[in-house]
Input
Amino acid sequence: MNETEQAQPSTIHDDEIDLREIFRVLWAGKWLIGIITFTSAVIAVVVALMLPNVYRAEALLAPNDQEGAGGLSALAAQYGGLASLAGIDIGGRPSDKTALGLEILQSRKFITGFIERHDILVPLMAAKSWDDETGRLIIDTDDYDVSEKMWVRDVRPPKTSVPSLLEAYEEFTEILSVNQNNTTGFVVVAVEHYSPIVAKQWVDWLIDDLNSSIMLQDVAEAEQAIEYLNKQIENTSLSQLQNVFFNLIEEQTKTVMLAMVTDEYLLKTLDPAVAPEIKARPQRALIVIFCSIFGGLVGLVVVLVLNRSRR
Output
């Protein structure tokens, strides 16, 4: 017992000596720690100031109720069995077209088509900053020669000087954000870009193109269905089945009518996008703070390592 009691105070005493020694070493190297911390802070300030501002434009949307789709689903439930006797499938259409539309909005086919339709390859792939005073988008001359209107970027194969649509799609998905609230169903579509005007314009174009794409698709399907149902009416003599076909034609005609009278076929704009005045990133103050803290920690480690190496 006496040996244990003597060993325990000795261990505690050694720990206290170690802590005091560490503090003494750090205090002796305070100037080195300060220099490293200050250097890290200066580098962080320079890097943060060199980073261009990125602006975020977003629009709040709501699903547009489709009465035609709901009516067709009701008819399918009522007359589906009768129509199946004639070998015709009138299964109900999905009630939630918003989810389908949002998947289309983020698809490779839609985005590549969007880039081609609006000719935005240069501001997407070659922009490097935004001039607030002149309101001009600054293009990186190492990637694109504005005067010659020619791509001059130097890249390794399989990439080419002219960006491919697949490369442009990957770049666009990095700046595009699409989120739907599961409770309310509201949708937020956002785009980030160096130019606040470009970000706002692209959000507007995305919404218009999506509504137009879904509308044209539904109109084409409805017109094909009407043509098919008219042929079925001519080929059947059952009055009940003819009534079913007439009701289906009425619902399909209603779908075409609704598509033609509204521009916001799938999503209604509740709060349109505006050109933002405040940048979304970078957070320069946070960059400087974190880099300064990291530099201080590096300084502590360097002082301790140097002291150990001297020993």
In short: The radius of gyration is 33 Å.
